[in-house]
Write a structure and sequence with these properties.
Number of strands: 15
CATH architecture of the largest domain: Up-down Bundle
Helix content: 40-55%
Number of domains: 4
Distance between the termini: 87 Å
Radius of gyration: 44 Å
Strand content: 15-25%
């Protein structure tokens, strides 16, 4: 047995190992699968060559020579598919004929197996078995050269003038060397009758080593791009895409595919600029952050924040652009809610100012009415001394009633103004001792216009001690809970307000018999900006602020709700607190 057999044996092992490495690098990547298939074909070719060079009878040797066509027949079409995958070049005409090109090798394999048109016979030599080629081999030879030439042309068009040109030249050199060796030793020499060792299968191992060398030199290979950290990218909540320098998408994660509204495989080769509107161009060594809009496949426009930066290989050459897109739809909603919250705060300050201004004229109206009542009593007394008839007595009594009703009305207006002023004023959270029942009554007076005709109020106050608290803040909590209860009632219903003292705490319960809260959202009602109300009717801030206020008082707020039965909020506040937190 000749030592020549070590050449195809080494080629078989090397090609098989490289095919496995390339495939497991990312089985889901089409380029990796095609590169692995091309290397695997070389391994099959080399394996057949090892077998037929160990046979002693020409019939068995010829059978394995013909079987080796399974390895070399598809090398041309597979190289085209591989280069189309790794370059992302549209080439629509070529892509349409690739399926046909993949069928032609089947014809060559069958012709080779059943006829002598490609391989006629074998002849024993000093180094192994040499084969004689048939008349149709020239057709296959031209077909293979045309396919591989088209592959190199694709690579030239895709990478000329780019940062990956140097990388592509090394790959092209490796493929060209493999092509020259295979075509000369396994094609040209047999055609002209030279019986030299065949090195075509070994040339495939050169192709494999070209891929391995590019991994070492550049950190990746054009012919087997690898995962690009797919596992990490799939865990991100932002959309990530890698494009070539011309903006054509090379790979995307699932979040980017969701943003664009298309499956990931349909995005390969698409210009990312066609989907992202108002995007600034990335310059050398530059990172951009743009708030722009993204057009989805269905035509919808969604707000996004896009960051983009150049990607370099190990040698510092720019090889692509990484894009990171963040969905701003929720943020836009939060911004709108914050604007509404700011307006509400401004309205609160305005209400406090108006209440202060109204309080002054009410004060002197109250004083004048008090003085008027004194004068009326004195005047009435003198009049009755002169004439104590019934008509005059009725007039005096009616005048006293009118003045008393006016005083009551002014006192009520003063109480409402005082309550509004105290509730609307932001305050500084100063701690003082306050009567919880009085705070609740003040809130009910402020909310009376909204409750009238809708909610029946049932108050069951227990005997409570004064509580160390920030009164305005607790009033804000109570007002929010009462208004929420009123809104849950719909057209009409009852709100129960109960208080009691438990050990070192006071408990305030606000219960309604309204629509209730679904179980699916009851755990989220305290989250900031979460609301079940229609757009424009709620900010989602009320209960979140209420919980924060109660927390600052070292208290607790809880909720129990049953749909179509009602909801109960319970607030527990310590009677004595040394401090009230500022944050």
């Amino acid at each position: 047995m000749s030592l020549y057999i070590l050449i195809p044996l080494f080629a078989c092992i090397a090609s098989a190992v490289m095919a496995t490495i390339v495939y497991i690098r990312n089985p889901g990547e089409s380029a990796n699968r095609n590169a692995a298939l091309l290397l695997g074909s070389g391994a099959v070719w080399a394996a057949c060559e090892v077998v037929y060079n160990t046979r002693t009878d020409p019939e068995t040797a010829l059978m394995f020579v013909k079987a080796s066509a399974i390895g070399w027949a598809w090398s041309g079409p597979l190289s085209i598919r591989l280069f189309l995958d790794v370059t992302g070049l549209p080439a629509p005409r070529l892509r349409r004929i690739v399926p046909t090109l993949m069928v032609l090798p089947v014809v060559f394999v069958l012709v080779n197996w059943f006829t002598p048109w490609l391989v006629e016979s074998v002849e024993r030599t000093s180094w192994g078995w040499a084969y004689s080629l048939g008349p149709a081999f020239g057709i296959y030879y031209i077909f293979a050269l045309a396919c591989i030439g088209a592959s190199l042309r694709i690579g030239y068009i895709a990478y000329r003038g780019t940062g990956e040109r140097d990388h592509a030249l090394w790959i092209a050199g490796g493929i060209t060397a493999s092509l020259v060796v295979a075509s000369v030793t396994d094609g040209l020499f047999p055609i002209i009758g030279l019986d030299t060792p065949r090195c075509g299968s070994a040339a495939f191992s050169v192709f494999g080593f070209t891929i391995a060398w590019s991994f070492h030199r550049y950190g990746y290979s054009l012919l087997a791009p690898g995962t690009f950290a797919d596992e990490v990218l799939e865990t991100l909540t932002d959309g990530v895409a890698m494009t070539r320098l011309d903006g054509r998408i090379r790979t995307v994660n699932s979040e980017m595919a969701k943003l664009l509204g298309r499956p990931p495989d349909e995005l390969i080769g698409v210009q990312i600029g066609l989907s992202i509107q108002g995007l600034a161009t990335v310059g050398a060594e530059e990172v951009r952050h743009n708030e722009c809009s993204m057009r989805r496949a269905n035509g919808d426009q969604i707000p996004v924040a896009v960051s983009s930066t150049l990607l370099h290989d190990r040698r510092g050459t720019a090889i692509g652009i990484v894009w990171v897109a963040r969905d701003l739809r929720e943020l836009e909603s939060l911004r709108g809610s914050l604007v509404i919250s700011g307006r509400l705060a401004a309205v609160g300050e305005l209400a406090a100012g108006i209440a202060h201004e109204i309080n002054n004229p009410l004060a002197y109206v109250r004083a004048n009415l008090g003085l008027l009542r004194q004068h009326w009593e004195a005047l009435g007394s003198e009049l009755l001394k002169l004439d104590d008839t019934t008509p005059l007595a009725d007039v005096v009594a009616e005048g006293e009633e009118i003045i008393d009703e006016s005083l009551q009305g002014v006192d009520r207006a003063c109480a409402i103004v005082r309550d509004v002023k105290g509730l609307a004023h932001a305050g500084k959270g100063q701690r003082e001792f306050a009567d919880i029942s009085g705070l609740l009554d003040g809130v009910l007076r402020v909310a009376a216009p909204q409750l009238r005709g809708i909610a029946k109020i049932e108050k069951r106050y227990g005997s409570l001690p004064l509580v160390s608290c920030a009164p305005q803040e607790l009033q804000q909590v109570f007002l929010n809970l009462i208004i929420n209860a009123k809104q849950a009632l719909g057209g009409s219903g009852t709100i129960w307000i109960r208080t009691e003292s438990r050990h070192a705490n006071v408990s305030i319960t606000i219960e309604d018999d309204g629509s209730g809260i679904p179980k699916s959202v009851v755990e989220r009602i305290f989250d900031p900006f979460f609301t079940t109300k229609p757009v424009g009717e709620g900010t989602g801030l009320g209960l979140g602020i209420a919980r924060e206020i109660v927390r600052r008082h070292h208290g607790e707020i809880s909720v129990q709700s049953t749909p179509n039965v009602g909801t109960t909020f319970r607030v527990q506040i310590p009677i004595h607190t040394d401090t009230i937190e500022d944050s």
